[in-house]
Design a protein that fits this description.
This is DUF3853 family protein. This protein is α+β, with helices and mostly antiparallel strands. 43% of the residues lie in helices and 12% in strands. The chain is elongated and about 70 Å long.
Amino acid sequence: MNITDLKEKPLWQMTGEEFLFLQQNAGQPTVQPPLKPDTSKKYVYGICGIAKLFGCSMPTANRIKQSGKIDKAITQIGRKIIVDAELAIELAGRKTGGRR
């Protein structure tokens, strides 16, 4: 009997022998592959991508881009706009200036 197969099997389908075997060997660690964190960056493209990222209209996304608040997250080559999504959200959340 394989422990990993028994763990995937529903309890109502197990025989008494399988259930007792699983209980007796439950303390043994099962080998699982280590999880790799997602290190790839997420990018959005164009004004439409900025609008979807912030959940706003395209004119508002254009104002956000033109305000310069997320300039560090934007790479623009000609007409192509590439935005690092995580950095843009972080920069947009920061407060700068304010009333005096």
